[in-house]
Amino acid sequence: MSDNSGRLSRKFFSRDVLDVAPDLLGRVLVRRGRGGKETRDIITEVEAYRGERDLACHASKGRTKRTEIMYEEAGLIYTYLIYGKYWLLNIVTGEKGVPQAVLIRATKKADGPGKVSDMFDINESFYGVDITKPSKIWIERSDIILPNYKQYPRVGVQYAGDWAKKPWRFIMED
DNA sequence: ACAAAGATCCGT
DNA sequence: CGGATCTTTGTA
User: Fold this and answer.
1) Is A129 helix (H, G, I), strand (E, B) or coil?
2) Could you give phi then psi for residue A10, rounded to 5 degrees?
C-alpha cells in the first residue's frame, strides 16, 4: 500500500472512500516547497464525499469542469476555491469513473480545511496532481496505524438534506 | 450576461 | 452573527 519511501500508493486510495478516509488518520501529510523545504504534519480530521447520489458531493450535479477530476483515477488531487479564499485539499478515491473524494479537514497544527490550505500552501496548481508520485506533495505512513477515531456529520452541507446526516466526518482521538 | 451560493475563517 | 471575496453554476 506504500512504496519504500513510505509514500501511500494508488492502491491505497483506490478503495471506497469510506475505507480510505479513516485510514488516513494519523498519517503524515508532506509538502516539499522550493528549496526542498518540507512541511509535515499528522492528519487528524477528514470527510468523505461519495458519488453522484451523495447530495453533499460536488459531483452530485454530474460531471463539470470542476468535478471531472473526481471521475479520474484514485490518488489525484481535487482542489477548488471556496468563499473566494481557500483552496481545499481533497484526494480522489475509489474506482475510476465513480466520483469520490476525501477532504483533508485538519492536521495537528491546522484545525480547519482553510488553515490546512494556508499551512501547506495549497493553490489551484494542485488540481490533478498525483499525490502517489514523487512531487511537491504526498502522504506517508507513520507509527500510528488506525488510531481511535469518532464519526460525526459533515460540516457546512445542510443543503444536502438527509445526506448531511451521514456520519462521514472522521476525527482522530488523542 | 447576470445573479446566487458556497465542503471557511475572523472579528464583534 | 455578519462580512470578506471570487469562482462555479444555473438561468435567460
Assistant:
1) coil
2) -60, -35
Q: Which residue's C-alpha cell is 460525526? A: A152
How does pLDDT run across A122-134, given as a tens digit for each residue?
Answer: 999 999 999 999 9
Q: How far is the CA of A96 from the C1' of C1 (A)?
A: 42
> Where do we find the cell 494556508?
A118
Pairing of strands A169-172, A137-140: unpaired
* Strand B proximal to A82 Cβ, under 7 A: yes
CB of A159 nearer than 7 A to strand C: no
pLDDT in tens, A12-61: 999 999 999 999 999 999 999 988 999 999 999 999 999 999 999 999 99
Instruction: Give the distance, in angstroms, between residue A51 CA and nucleotide B12 C1'.
Output: 39
Three cell numbers, residue A30 = 508532506
Give the CA-to-C1' distance from A61 to B4 in angstroms. Answer: 16
Q: Is the CB of A90 under 7 A from strand B?
A: yes
SS3 labels along A32-61: ECHHHCEEEEEEEEEEEEECCCCCCCHHHH
pLDDT of A79-89, one tens digit each?
999 999 999 99
CB A173 within 8 A of CB A147: yes
The pTM of the full predicted model, rounded to 2 decimals, is 0.96
The residue type of A7 is R
